[in-house]
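seq:
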Amino acid sequence: MLESDRNYSIKEIGNLKDFITVAYVIIEDIYQKVTPTHIKNRCNINTSKMSDGEIIT
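struct:
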């Protein structure tokens, strides 16, 4: 299992927007650690409208 260097402290999530924000931050951190370089540096990444982390979330 993937261990995270960050300690996330989530006491209470009040609404859906907060949940999605927390989920995005966690997913983005993990995605940056596990994504191979050839995927991070693929063609046309600068013209995309959403990041990979946003799509996954």
